[in-house]
Amino acid sequence: MTRPAARGGSRASADRLARLLNLVPYLLARPGIEIAEAAGDLGVTERQLREDLELLWVCGLPGYGPGDLIDMAFDGDRVTITYDAGIDRPLRLTPDEALALVVALRMLAETPGVANREAVERALAKIEDAGDLVGAPVAVRLPGDTPLVEALRAAVEGGRALRITYYTAARDETTDRVIDPLRMLMVGGRAYVEAWCRRAEAVRLFRADRIDAVTELAEPATVPPQAVPHDLTEGVFRPSPDLPLITLRIGRSERWITEYYPCERVEAGDGDRWLVSLRVTDLGWARRFVLGLGPDAVVVAPAELADQVRAAAAAALDAYAVPAPTAAPRPAALDGTSAPSGDPAVAGRTQ
Q1: I want to staple 112 with a disulfide (CB 3.0 to 4.6 A). Which of 91, 135, 163, 184 is the partner?
Q2: Sequence-ordered strand ranges (E) for 117-222
Q3: Using CA atoms, how far apart are residues 219 and 283, in angstroms rounded to an integer?
Q4: Which ranges of the chain does DSSP label H, i.e. alpha helix?
C-alpha cells in the first residue's frame, strides 16, 4: 500500500517543481496580477498557488540570505515579483539537451521489466513533439539485447507460453521446459525472463544467455494464482540459511569473489590470504567454481567439497598424463617369422 502512494507523491513533487520553475517568469511578465486569475491560468486552486508562493519565499541562490532569495510584494490579492534570483524565463531545452533526454527515455523504455513504461512513453512523446524530434534517427540498443531477448520480450508482451531449452549452471545440465512468462527483467546488465515453470511447478528466473532454444507456443500463458514474482531489490541470488556454506582461503587474485558474490564472512588471514565464507546453491556448482579459480584458492570447509575438488583435479591431471611408451613392432623375417630381437632369450626361441 505504501509504494503506490510513494509513486504518487513523487509525481506530485515533480509536477510542483515544474510549476515553480515556470511560476516566476509567469509572474514577472504580469506584475500585480490577481491570485485568482493566475491560479486559473496555471490550472491550480488559489490555495495551491498561495502555498507555492510561500515556498518561493525560501528559494533562491546559494547563500540563502537577504538578497539571495526570491522576493515578492503583495497588494491585497495581487502579487508582484520584486527579485527573481535569476529565474527570469521558462525552462527551455536546447536541441542537445532534448536529444539526450530522448536517448535516455528510449533506453529506459527498452529496458525489460521497467515500471510505469506507459509514463515513460508519454514523456518521450511530449519531448519529441516539443523538440521536433519525432522520428529522429536515434537507435537505442542495450548491451544485453540480442535477437533472443527481443523474441522473449515479444512473447511476454504477447502473453504466449514458451518451450525453452535451458542450461542450468548449478547442476550443469540442459533441460526442456514449458514456461508461462510473467515479465522480462534486466538485472546487473543481464536479461532474465521470470515465468511459471510447469516442470518445477514454481516461479523461476531464466537467464536469457542460458536459453539455447525457444519456441513460442500457440496456447496462451496460464499463470496460476499462487505464482508471485520474486523480490529482486537485493539481487537475483538471495542466500538462505538452508543452503550449503563453503569456506575458502583465497589469495589477492581471488579477492574479486567478495565483490561479486554475497559473502557471510570475510576475514584477513596470514599474509595476503583471506578467509571467505559464502552460501552456494549446491556443492556441484561449488566444485566447478573452485576448479575455475587460481592456484591460491584452497577449500577449508566442508570436507566433502575438498574431496570433490581433489578428485576432479586428479582426474583432470590423469587425462593430461603422458602415456607410457610402447615397444615398436618387430619387422617380419623373410620366412614369415619374427625377426630376432636384442633379447638373447627371444632370439633363441625364434631360431
Answers
A1: 184
A2: 160-168, 173-187, 190-197, 202-207, 211-220
A3: 38
A4: 2-28, 35-42, 46-56, 95-110, 117-130, 147-158, 257-260, 283-291, 303-319, 344-350
User: Average model confidence (pLDDT) for the chain?
Assistant: 76
Residue-wise pLDDT tens digits, 15-44: 677 777 778 888 888 899 999 998 888 888
CB 188 within 8 A of CB 128: no
Residue range 44-94, pLDDT digits in tens: 899 988 888 888 877 877 766 667 788 888 888 899 988 877 766 555 666
Cβ atoms of 273 and 249 within 8 Å: the answer is yes
Cell triple for 349:
626361441
Report, in angstroms and rounded to the nearest whole number, the Rg of the chain calculated over CA atoms. Answer: 35
Alpha-carbon distance of 68 to 60, in angstroms, equals 6
Q: For the chain, give the number of residues.
A: 351
pLDDT of residue 94: 67
Strand order in the sheet with 245-250: 263-268, 274-279, 245-250, 298-301
Burial label for 142, CB within 10 Å (0-12, 13-18, 19+), is: middle
Which residue, 130, 146, 212, 220, is CA-closest to 184? 146
Average pLDDT over residues 312-340: 66
What whole-number percentage of the chain has pLDDT above 90?
9
Distance, CA of 293 to CA of 271 (rounded, Å): 19
Q: What is the pLDDT of residue 338?
A: 46
Host H or E run for residue 73: strand 71-75
Phi-psi region of 331 (alpha: psi -120 to 50; beta: other; left: phi over 0): beta
Whole-angstrom distance, CA of residue 144 vs CA of residue 230: 21
Q: What is the DSSP letter of 340?
A: P
Question: What confidence tens digit (pLDDT) does each residue in 258-307 have?
Answer: 887 888 889 887 778 899 998 887 888 888 888 888 788 899 999 999 99
Q: Report residue 272: phi and psi, to 5°.
A: -90, 5
Q: Whole-angstrom Cα distance, residue 263 to residue 165?
A: 31
